[in-house]
Amino acid sequence: MDSIHDNFVDLVEHSNVLIAVYDETDRLRLANEAFRRAFHLSPDETPSWVEIMRRNHAAFKGTPIRSADLEAWLTSTQSRRGKMPFRAYETDLVDGRWLWMTETVRPNGWMLCVASEITDLRRDERLLRQDLDLAMRAAQTDDLTSTANRRFIFGRLDALIHSAALVPDSALSVCLFDIDLFKSINDRFGHQGGDMVLRHFANLVQAVIRRTDCFGRIGGEEFMLVMPGSPAESSLVFVEHLLAEARTARPLPDRPAMTYTCSAGIATYQPGDIAADLYSRADHALYRAKVEGRDRVRLSAEALPLTEQP
After folding, report:
1. What is the pLDDT of residue 126?
2. Which regions of the chain are under pLDDT 50?
């Protein structure tokens, strides 16, 4: 048995196929020689995916990032990266190679990436498939914040509800966020200032959510966070932390005294729910948070402890 294992490890390590494993925080945990060569990594380091992209971009190596806004590109890519059990797409490297990349994600958020070189395929066919992927990214991304848009988030919520319905006692929480008094922010600091606040909050959340979570802007100053495997209690603690982070932030560099707050409402999956049910209950909880003074999070009735339910 040890011989089989050793041969397997040796084959993986010295394969021409790029192989890597990321944990639920998107930090590299294992990678073979081919992967480390492609992304210029030493054998003993375990950087996050974001760190790999930033480092390679600065050194003109690895994946070519053609966007003029690196941070927006990172946010947009993270919004889709590892959100589905399996995804396949094409990508290229600065050295001219083209790769067929697959992502396989386990329920715990760990992800296996495998890439095979397809440089010898016809260039026009590769470019056509890449154009299709870029068009799909644009259709799933909010232009202002570069996070997922309403269509993508509700699509993921539908898929996660379907999965939860197959497993008894599945935990699934949905949180709606709303920037408090957003009209007054626009009135005081202009629409550019308001846009900076929206992007600030989006980046704040995107930086700390799990791979399996799905977050984005669903309209105006409203955002949605879908948290599979997260019961009401842990979701509440996490969202309270996010609101505290927003409360102490300074989103406008030229106006260091400017602050903002958010209100939030959380609903949890119940058997028989559809996406509209969860959204409606989270929206009612958000309304309660607003009515009770803003800058707070409230749970919908089904998510409350039995002693607190009406």
Report:
1. 65
2. 307
Task: Pull the structure tokens for residue 13.
Answer: 């390590």
Q: Looking at the structure, do residues 81 and 32 belong to the same domain, yes or no?
A: yes
Tell me the CATH number at 23: 3.30.450.20
3-state helix, strand, coil in the chain (%, to 5): 45, 20, 35
Active site residue 292: no
Handedness of CA 59, 61, 66, 71 (dihedral sign): negative
φ, ψ of residue 273 in degrees (nearest 5): -65, 150
User: Domain of 235: which CATH number?
Assistant: 3.30.70.270
Is residue 89 packed enough to be buried (19+ CB in 10 Å), middle (13-18) or exposed (0-12)? middle
Burial of 288 (0-12, 13-18, 19+ CB in 10 A): middle
Nearest to 160 by CA among 170, 149, 175: 170
Q: DSSP 3-state assignment of 291?
A: helix
User: Is 171 buried (19+), middle (13-18) or exposed (0-12) by CB count in 10 A?
Assistant: middle
Q: Which of 221, 222, 233, 302 is catalytic?
A: 221
Give the predicted TM-score (pTM) of the model. 0.81
Q: Cα separation of 178 and 201, whole Å?
A: 10
Residue range of the domain that includes 127: 2-140
Could you report the per-residue pLDDT of 178-199, keeping only the tens digit for each?
999 999 999 999 999 999 999 9
